[in-house]
Design goal:
Elements (H helix, E strand, L loop, with lengths): L6 E6 L3 H16 L4 E8 L4 E2 L2 E2 H8 L15 E4 L2 H5 L4 E4 L6 H8 L8 E4 L5 E3 L2 E3 L1 H9 L3 E5 L4 H5 L4 E6 L3 H11 L4 E6 L2 H23 L4 H22 L11 H13 L1 H12 L3 H9 L6 H14 L7 H11 L6 H8 L8
Parallel strand pairs: 1-2, 1-6, 2-5, 6-7, 7-10, 11-12
Antiparallel strand pairs: 3-4, 8-9, 10-11
Helix pairs in contact: 8-9, 8-10, 8-11, 8-13, 8-14, 10-11, 11-12, 13-14, 14-15
Bound molecules: 1,4-dihydronicotinamide adenine dinucleotide and 1,3-dihydroxyacetonephosphate (13P).
Family: Belongs to the NAD-dependent glycerol-3-phosphate dehydrogenase family.
Enzyme class: oxidoreductase
EC number: 1.1.1.8
Length: 355
């Protein structure tokens, strides 16, 4: 863009999705040399793998052997263990880390960033503070004093890394930001649509993980496809009701974007939340134990979100109005019989205003 400084991109996070999206960005900084600096910096929460720093391994092999094994990230992705060093001088920050760690990381970036820096949040979760649920892009804006857009979609990280075709949704207020983010993320296999409803997009991204736990419970019980579809449909209705009841400016159309129904379908079919919930039903162990056993350091988001949503609804005396979200929480955390997930659906339906 004429008169526009070349954008330096930093990825804040380097898990399964963080690594996969760093690869997408690294392809696009090469594709658009007029707009972006070639190098993509990636902040890595440092850990040792067989006695070696993960950052050193990534920089030597161009592969995140722990969180995205077998995938070349690109020689222009540079792993950095210090988050301040990684973010200093960046024009674009891509936040992509499990939602429970975001606040602490943002705090360490306070006062460090350039004024013209803009951010985008790929986090799927809501910020739970003082029994309130807040939108992450808005919290990042408040803490860091910069604009923050959001990206969410039906995007299983390993499939994007294998360049299988899929879609995603970006939501932002400022059309100029939308143009930059489109160029940073869109590829022939990763199809971006830009919309304005950043709240609806992030409510979908958080709540579909809870519904996916419900789909996993169905699978753990060996229920058929009809029951699982009922859970998914009721889940979608509760996602919409939750967005419209508690957050201003949420549009129904957003639920038809990749960030809505498509992400719900992909996560209920092939996501980690579904897989771990199914194993949990069969195991007799706690969900945290199963998560540790199955995910090798990757983090579930649906479990924490389920707790947060339940406590948020309880404080408002509204659990009855979200019977599926409530049943999922009780099965996972209060030893309710797993079958109650379908029983509750027979007797209680969510009331939604038709438009
Ligand atoms: N994996 C996927 O297929 C997708 C994930 N997402 C979302 O992207 C976000 C990030 O997920 P992933 O990249 O998959 O992460 P992940 O599930 O692979 O999480 C592990 C990451 O957390 C880091 N970590 C561990 N302890 C930490 C700490 N105390 N402080 C900071 N970081 C710490 C690890 O180093 C690692 O990078 C989540 O909100 C997730 O829902 C969105 C789309 C797809
Ligand atoms: O968000 C995802 C796909 O879009 C991944 O979901 P899981 O965290 O359940 O794997």
């Amino acid at each position: 863009m004429p008169g526009f400084p070349k954008q330096k991109v930093t990825i804040i996070g380097s898990g399964n999705w963080g690594s996969s999206i760093a690869r997408v960005c690294a392809q696009n900084t090469i594709r658009h040399p007029d707009l972006f600096e070639r190098e993509v910096r990636m902040w890595v929460f440092e850990e040792k793998i067989d006695g070696k720093n993960l950052t050193d391994i990534i920089n030597e092999k161009h592969e995140n052997v722990k969180y995205l094994p077998g995938i070349n990230l690109g020689e222009n992705v540079v792993a950095i263990p210090d988050v301040v060093e990684a973010a200093k001088g960046a024009n674009v920050l891509v936040f992509v880390l499990p939602h429970q760690f975001v606040y602490k990381v943002c705090e360490s970036l306070r006062g460090v960033l350039d004024k013209d820096c803009r951010a985008i949040s790929l986090i799927k979760g809501l910020d739970y503070k003082n029994n309130n649920l807040l939108i992450f892009s808005e919290e990042i804006e408040k803490i860091l004093g910069i604009n923050c857009a959001a990206l969410s979609g039906a995007n299983i990280a390993s499939e994007v890394a294998e360049e299988q075709f899929g879609e995603t949704t970006i939501a932002c207020r400022d059309p100029k930001d939308g143009e930059i983010f489109y160029k940073l993320f869109h590829t022939g296999y990763f199809d971006v649509n830009v919309i304005g409803d950043w709240r609806g997009l992030q409510v979908c991204g958080a709540l579909k993980n809870v519904v996916a736990l419900g789909a996993g419970i169905c699978d753990g019980l060996h229920y058929g496809n009809n029951t699982k579809s009922a859970v998914i449909r009721r889940g979608l209705l509760e996602m919409r009701k939750f967005g419209k009841t508690f957050f201003g400016g949420v549009h129904t159309e957003t639920y038809f974007e990749s960030c809505g129904v498509a992400d719900l379908i992909t996560t209920c079919a092939g996501g980690r939340n579904r897989k771990v919930a199914a194993a949990f039903i069969k195991s007799g162990k706690s969900i945290d134990e199963i998560e540790k056993e199955m995910l090798n350091g990757q983090k579930l988001q649906g479990t924490t979100t389920s707790q947060e949503v339940y406590h948020f609804l309880s404080a408002r005396n509204m659990t009855q109005e979200f019977p599926l979200m409530t049943a999922i929480y009780r099965v996972i955390y209060e030893h309710a019989p797993p079958e109650s997930i379908a029983l509750d659906l027979r007797t209680r339906n969510v009331k939604v205003d038709m438009e």
